[in-house]
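Re: export button greyed out
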Amino acid sequence: MDSFLEIFDIYLLEAVLNGILLGGVLALLALGLNLIFGVIDVTWICYAELIMVGMYAIYYLFTVYHLPYWIAAPACILIVAGLGALLHFLVIEPLLSAPPINQLLATGGVLFFLQSFATVAFGIEFRNVGIKLPILAIGDMNFSYARLLAFGAALVGMVAVYVFMRKTYVGTAIRAIAQDRQIMPLMGVDARRIYLITSAIGGALAGLAACLLVLMYDVHPFIGLSIGPITFLICVLGGLGNFVGGFVASFLFAQIISLGGLFSDLEWGYVLAFGFFILMMFIRPAGLLARRA
Amino acid sequence: MSAVRNPIAWVIAAIVLGAVPFVHRDPYHLHILILILIWSFAYTSWSMMGRFGLTSLGHGGFMGIGAYVTALLWNHLGLTPWLGIPVALACAAAMALVVGYPCFRFRITGHYFALVTLALSGIVLQVITATRDWTGGSLGYTPEAAKGNNLLAMQSGDKVVWYLAALVVWAFGLVVWTWIDRSMERAAMDAISEDEDAAAAAGVNVTAEKLKITVLSALMTALAGAVYCQYQMFISPDTVSGIGISLQMVFAAVVGGLYVALGPTVGAIITILLAEGLRIGFGTKAVGWDNLIYGALLVAFIIFLPKGILGSILERVSLRRAPEPTRPAAEPARARSASAASPP
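Workaround output, generated via the alternate export path:
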């Protein structure tokens, strides 16, 4: 996990601003997972592994086959979207009526599978796409362009999902399904199709995250283990399926990691963040923004 | 089943298992057997709570505490593992209490419980990595070799000694499992896993019962970590702690069978033999293949055989033996004899 946040300097303001930028990236990560949970009511433990596959897709398309980035990125998003739909079709659909914990464990199996698939197919070397974006220096503070770009793209992605959910017919159907799983099929909504579309959108968001993360970090088969847990914790902290909560939780978490890492080692930032998470679970078990029953 | 109740079968099994290292002294085979026994114990510990629907993804944390606390006390304070292990177990139990009590008190179940415990194992992993000056971080850690009394240091180069020790620990795990299986605790936990509100209404103290089983499970998992550390003489966050280990425990227990005593053992045999077989057969080319197969198997098992290999086999055997369910048949018979005994 120490590879996740390397770029830190000693200045508080810089740490806060970088925390905000990191929050944007985390919010994007949390968005896809929240969408899946909110609509299908399953937790994709292997969500970060989808991102890992996406990062490899970019790596191969861009660095090995020399496609331009603006072609590789949409291709990556499509590939991961397809993977998300496939995951739903092969693993989740047979388990839809099983206890929720079995679905969680099955996606845990997929996690193992994808991770070792990457090990077998791509090897365990760290790979870098070799895009070096400049560092933006404002006074004594440094920000990486990659992170600014990621922050911007994360915001655009979130707005796009919001508009899609509010303004289109399919988006409305998705929100309806999320509200009542039993009734909507009776109203003529094809639940299977909606689930499949939702999974594909969740995958596409993972693909978008992959396109951005690949600019900041090297790809290796175990990168999922460093971004996965924190994504789940953010989603749970915000309340699984609660988009606004996930958004708020992302920025809170990013600030704790950023500031905790400022005063001590980066790992302690994570320890603080995880401890904060456990504490918050006891104070607000249903998520940050939930009204207490 | 009659074979399970038969004490002679137990004695024979114990003698056969205990005699193995004296008949077959191949160190490599013994090493594999020891690993199987230690991991079986760890998986059994996990399934103690896993079988009641308390799916913990944090047991890697408990195992890490058991291993690291024991080794750190030995290296830095010279405290013998005979005292160090109880301290480590106390730490694990304390952590289980600190996380478990609020979880159960505030009704954090299912997904949420799994994710909270996932955070727990993340914390332990990060603390081990962050305190790298003490623990060696992700490079791993070695308990210092004993400078004299091996027994005091709980170290031994002799595989036979370790085999017997691991056998005792493993058997202890099965005894605890069986003891829980026959206790009121089991009935209470079964009721809780079916419906918490109904169980509470029926007078079950939900929080206390869950806490009991969680602490027991954490204690045993920490013990497994300590034993593993003493045997291997090398621990690293990847081998005894963290999320990978937590998932591995879940996987092995599910594949073997959560609901039967020997299920986790079968899971350990399958996973370790698979990994070793691939390693020997394909050498370094096999890196990753074992987990690839695990992952696919785990998904297939949860979809097609949620009771695991041993669980499904035993179910089929018992169905064949007794085509009609025995218990409901016994109840009316007793009722009839009771009414027959009362005067008309």
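Chain A touches chain B through 48 residues (CB under 8 Å). The button fix ships in the next patch.
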